[in-house]
Amino acid sequence: MKDYLINESWWISGIVYGLGLLVVILLVAYRQAWTKFLHEVRTELGKCSWPWDPEQTGLRKYKQLIDSTVVVIVSTILLAGYITGFDYLISNLVGLLVNF
């Protein structure tokens, strides 16, 4: 029985196993809602237009996706640099005014 203890504590084990049992009960009780939700998600994903051509193979298939990802990463780095620089400038300006 001690093999099922979590962190050698009956309290923690009881809480974790109780929550697990609650999750299983809720999944069983609401299985129709879950299956309906998953079916709707699958249907909506089928309507999406994905950013690649299914006829192409290799990395060319994902060219638009890779290009968009690079643009997002570069934009994020530039924005982070701008915010950091502006924050540094404002912090020094406020520091000068406070010490003045």
Describe this structure as you would to a colleague:
The protein has 100 residues and is mainly alpha-helical. Helix content is 74%, strand content 0%.
Mean pLDDT: 88
Main β-sheet description: none
Low-confidence stretches: none
Order of helices and strands: HHH
Shape: flat
Q: What keywords describe this structure?
A:
single chain; 74% helix; 3 helices; 0% strand; mainly alpha; 100 residues; flat
Strand and helix map with partners:
Elements: H1 10-29, H2 31-47, H3 63-99
Short account of what is shown:
The chain contains three helices and no strands. It is mainly α and 100 residues long.
